[in-house]
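Re: that backbone. Tokens:
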């Protein structure tokens, strides 16, 4: 059985810190209900998934992104 793992967007682009002010990038990692997508769906590694979740939550508090519906 072969698994097709996606490459982490942040590792491929050599991004260490996920910026909460970059809402365009963060929108790629949320669904239409504004919920954070799991790493299995997006392909992010565990380290960047934790950074991504924190950045999305900060962007929500700063009113750059909406909260869940």
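Recovered sequence:
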């Amino acid at each position: 059985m072969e698994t097709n793992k996606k490459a982490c967007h942040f590792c491929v682009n050599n991004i260490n810190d996920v910026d909460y002010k970059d809402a365009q990038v963060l929108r790629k990692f949320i669904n239409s209900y504004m919920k954070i997508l799991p790493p299995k769906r997006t392909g992010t590694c565990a380290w960047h998934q934790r950074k991504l979740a924190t950045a999305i939550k900060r962007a929500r508090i700063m009113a750059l992104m909406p909260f869940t519906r």
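The two ends are 38 Å apart (CA to CA). The first helix runs from residue 9 to 12.
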